[in-house]
Task: inverse folding
């Protein structure tokens, strides 16, 4: 009987304690918010304050991810070892997961169109004495395949990128470059893409650079002061989560392993012009007659930032443009010897419609 | 999510119970009347019409019953009793199917049914209430205004006699336990499963495959089961916290093998009301009081109309009636079960699917063509992709945890657990009690901090005007 009473007493006391704690907490939160003059906190109901409380919201996200291994939001795939992927590209709607499992293959007709477009563009540039390369930056789900959750299985062999690569190489279209293998090849090297965003890091940019320069040198027989892997160091630091983590509100919980170029790598170029998506860099010790000139067209500024230290330190003049629509005549006017167009795996459809 | 709204749980409930504890010693009923009045005002302050409906309903029931007694004409009493039900149907039509932007007054269904029941009871011989406050308490008693359990006026009067209202520690603590269990069922299980259902339904809308439809049926079945039974537990728990010993509703998803049992467990209020005020008088009038088909048909129609007042919804009655008749013919209900455990299990699985389809229909806007189109679109195209999307949604341990919580809320109330408890020593029983209490409170805090904030879409704002 006494036991029953004690349990009843405890039940009532603890339950009341819990309710009153919440009542006081939400009340105090509101009062402090009002004192801060936080305009958003004005005229909100008790319910709104509860649902909008940042501490509670952070706890929910943290517990969801850390304890339950779950993220609310069907677009985010939680990979192993703190990797996050997107099922559908939040920028352009590309169905990444569907492609990963081979569910959106290109038809023969589409592949033919891509081959014709790339070959035509290559011929146009070659006719004006320039080398042309079309580089496709693989998505993080392609490079970080080993971190994709087990239930999604291995990447299909019929992804669009592998289809296009295979088709173009079988038809001898050399201008198309898929650097995936180069980004994965070196054992013990840092990972080449960010684990919380679908983007390359400094090492990934180096891999792409190395692939382009090797091809350029092999094709043209020219000589440039290329940067070798032994010349540079990379270091990895833990930073707040990027893009995908931010979209899930988990930037503080899921950290990004950011790979950067070592500080010992000094720049020997200057930025001559930087406006309206157009950047020109010039090597400080460049040839007086203008030397080697390269045009790099990439729509993503992040790619440019990552690629700049390599290309700008290698070539005398480098034009970076955030468009893929420029004409061979323009590049010819710059005196370019190499034109590189960079697209992402999620933007392969652009090649279909390329003029 | 009325009883799970933060303003209700963390503000109204503690303040109202403190108010009753302080002033309710000698004026229990008066305190309850005040609390119900304040609840009603807080709930409907955003709409003048909604604010006056309930008081008008009480006034109408009060005078209609007196007129019925005075005139002594049953036809008039029956007609006056039917008026709140007709009014309810009209209000639902106005709120759900018209373009006036009128918001349905939450928690008006049960009060309307109670008002009708009261008038009919008086028409058929019960005494008309003299004290307006008593009737006010009956019709506006908020804990049971959403899903019930339905209690007729005479039974309610017995429950709310001054001697019967027991605001003592044991009943209060009993109410808290039930409220917590209901809260956990509703938020940590029901809401999570229904949320999962909504997400998967959205992916698979274009080309569903059979496996996904089966999963959806399971999710909606268990999601709704836990939500509704959670509401019942909260309703009974809150009633007991205010000292009124409303009977508990024993609902267990694995014990309902037939549609009949399912509707008894989750729509007990509608069944009780229908049995007394529709089936019996109609059966007597038509001479079909013994007909199973008649009873089942009326129950099914009333349940469907109760959930969704729409003519096209009545189509769903056909499979429900057929299924109920099959189980009645095979004598599969618990009352009949004699050595048919195997058949009951198989039938139970089919019941899950039938009820799942029923809820799928009820939750899809745009009525039956949409559901039929959806099911007719079953294909195996993109099956791998859809399965992957489902796996992404269900990845991690969240749904495992939710299943565990669901089991924890159900298992302690099963007979075999009670029999084990009865065999425990005093010390062991004490340890189990303390551990049970600790687990319950921890789960409640977990639900309040972790699960509740995830369902802002249910931020139905009763107490919208409580601005700090």
Result:
């Amino acid at each position: 009987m006494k036991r029953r009473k004690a349990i009843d007493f405890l039940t009532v006391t603890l339950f009341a304690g819990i309710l009153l704690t919440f009542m006081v907490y939400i009340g105090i939160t509101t009062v402090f918010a009002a004192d801060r003059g936080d305009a958003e906190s004005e005229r909100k109901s008790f319910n709104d304050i509860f649902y909008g409380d940042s501490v509670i919201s952070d706890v929910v996200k943290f517990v969801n991810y850390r304890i339950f291994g779950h993220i609310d939001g069907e677009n985010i795939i939680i990979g192993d070892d703190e990797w996050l992927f997107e099922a559908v590209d939040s920028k352009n709607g590309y169905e990444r997961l569907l492609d990963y499992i081979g569910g959106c293959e290109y038809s023969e007709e589409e592949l033919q169109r891509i081959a014709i477009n790339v070959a035509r563009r290559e011929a146009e540039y070659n006719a004006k004495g320039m080398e042309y390369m079309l580089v496709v930056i693989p998505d993080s789900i392609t490079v970080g395949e080993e971190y994709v959750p087990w239930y999604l299985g291995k990447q299909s062999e019929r992804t669009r990128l592998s289809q296009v690569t295979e088709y173009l190489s079988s038809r001898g279209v050399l201008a198309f470059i898929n650097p995936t293998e180069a980004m994965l090849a070196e054992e013990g090297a840092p990972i080449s893409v960010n684990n919380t965003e679908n983007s390359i890091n400094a090492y990934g940019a180096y891999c792409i650079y190395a692939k382009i320069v090797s091809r350029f040198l092999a094709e043209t027989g020219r000589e440039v002061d290329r940067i070798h892997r032994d010349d540079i160091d990379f270091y990895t630091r833990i930073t707040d989560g990027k893009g995908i983590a931010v979209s899930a509100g988990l930037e503080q919980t899921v950290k990004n392993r950011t790979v950067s170029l070592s500080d010992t790598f000094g720049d020997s170029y200057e930025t001559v012009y930087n406006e309206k998506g157009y950047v020109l860099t010039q090597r400080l010790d460049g040839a007086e007659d203008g030397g080697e000139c390269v045009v790099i067209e990439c729509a993503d500024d992040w790619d440019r930032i990552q690629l700049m230290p390599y290309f700008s330190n290698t070539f005398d003049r480098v034009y970076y443009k955030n468009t893929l629509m420029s004409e061979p005549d323009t590049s010819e006017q710059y005196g370019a010897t190499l034109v590189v167009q960079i697209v992402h795996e999620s933007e392969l459809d652009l090649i279909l419609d390329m003029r | 999510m009325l009883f799970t709204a933060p303003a209700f749980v963390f503000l109204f409930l503690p303040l109202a119970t403190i108010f009753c504890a302080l002033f309710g010693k000698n004026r229990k009923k008066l305190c309850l009347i005040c609390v119900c009045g304040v609840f009603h005002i807080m709930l409907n302050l955003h709409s003048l019409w909604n604010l006056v409906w309930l008081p008008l309903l009480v006034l109408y029931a009060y005078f209609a019953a007196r007129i019925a007694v005075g005139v002594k004409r049953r036809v008039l009493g029956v007609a006056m009793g039917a008026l709140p039900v007709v009014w309810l149907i009209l209000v639902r039509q106005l709120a759900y199917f018209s373009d006036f932007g009128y918001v349905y007054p939450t928690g008006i269904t049960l009060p309307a049914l109670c008002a009708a029941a009261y008038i009919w009871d008086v028409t058929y011989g019960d005494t008309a209430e003299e004290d307006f406050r008593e009737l006010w308490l009956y019709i506006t008693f908020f804990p049971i205004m959403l899903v019930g359990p339905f209690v007729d006026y005479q039974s309610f009067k017995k429950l709310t006699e001054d001697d019967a209202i027991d605001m003592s520690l044991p009943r209060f603590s009993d109410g808290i336990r039930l409220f917590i269990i209901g809260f956990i069922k509703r938020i940590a299980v029901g809401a999570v499963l229904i949320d999962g259902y909504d997400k998967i339904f959205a992916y698979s809308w274009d080309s569903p495959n059979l496996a996904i439809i089966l999963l959806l049926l399971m999710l909606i079945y268990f999601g709704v089961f836990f939500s509704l039974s959670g509401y019942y537990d909260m309703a009974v728990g809150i009633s007991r916290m205010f000292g009124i010993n409303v009977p508990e509703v024993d609902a267990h998803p694995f014990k309902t093998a037939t549609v009949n049992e399912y509707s008894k467990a989750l729509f007990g209020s509608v069944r009780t009301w229908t049995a007394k005020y529709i089936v019996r008088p109609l059966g007597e009038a038509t001479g079909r009081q013994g007909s199973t088909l008649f009873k089942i048909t009326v129950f099914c129609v009333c349940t469907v109309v109760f959930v969704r007042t729409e003519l096209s919804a009545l189509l769903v009655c056909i499979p429900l009636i057929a299924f109920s008749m099959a189980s009645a013919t095979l004598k599969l209900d618990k009352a009949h079960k004699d050595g048919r455990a195997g058949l009951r299990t198989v039938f139970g699985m089919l019941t899950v699917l039938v009820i799942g389809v029923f809820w799928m229909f009820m939750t899809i806007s745009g009525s039956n063509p949409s559901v039929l189109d959806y099911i007719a679109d079953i294909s195996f195209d993109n099956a791998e992709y859809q399965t992957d999307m489902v796996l992404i949604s269900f990845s991690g341990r969240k749904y495992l945890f939710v299943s565990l919580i669901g089991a924890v809320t159900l298992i302690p109330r099963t007979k075999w657990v009670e029999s084990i408890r009865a065999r425990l020593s005093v010390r062991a029983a004490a340890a189990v009690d303390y551990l049970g209490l600790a687990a319950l409170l921890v789960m409640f805090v977990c639900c309040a901090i972790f699960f509740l904030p995830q369902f802002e879409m249910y931020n139905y704002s009763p107490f919208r005007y409580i601005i700090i």
